[in-house]
Design a protein that fits this description.
By secondary structure, this protein is α/β, with parallel strands linked by helices. The protein contains 11 helices and 8 strands. It holds the Pfam family Abhydrolase_1.
Length: about 260
Amino acid sequence: MQTFDSDGVTIAYIDVPAKAGAGAGDPILLVHGFASTHAVNWVNTLWVRTLTEAGYRVVALDNRGHGESQKLYDPEAYRTDVMAGDSLRLLDHLGIEHADVMGYSMGARISAILALDHPERVRSLLMGGLGLYMVDGKGGLPDGIAEALEAPPGTPAPNPTAAAFRAFAEQTKSDLRALAACIRCSRQRLSRAELALIETPTLVSVGTLDTIAGSGPGLAALMPNATSLELPNRDHSSAVGDRLHRQGVLDFLKQRA
């Protein structure tokens, strides 16, 4: 991985060119979800291979507090608009004037704010694992996740979702204290009026069994140039690398071109 300085914070990223002869190499920025990494969210699920083979240059970062990027412990350092600033500065660092931007879950929230604040930099917006709870709730997540992350090993979690996030964070060998700070401040909502201002071509992809995201069609209906892709029988975890998800994104990218 490579790193760059994002306003004093070290951010790790990959920059993978399109496969030779596959296409024009249009850049696409991938922004992963909470407690994940670029590798877990995008490499292991075959997204990087799929997109580079389809002719796209893939740029993917480890969000601050995650993966190989710098760990911070002040919740205010993880405001969604601050994290969107890391993505923007990565595009600046690489000299990319505009890119397709795809985020999953927390990454979709970050990507939407990037599109709202800097529409000239976002060619298209692909939001996975985040639906109407972008507006109406904290992403469908219960309280207690931060406390579960900070608890001593073996401490019972307050609910199954918190327990699942603790287990996932341990599996990815994450900094639990940094993730606890992140979850306390990284769920900035957008209003219906703000979503109506995002005119960027948008695809909202949510599994039909996803209880964390909220309604994908409901969110798409609030945006002037958005379409919805429902992924049958997929929940928040299994929808990420779903074959229909990858094909739907490729079809959407061809149409927006």
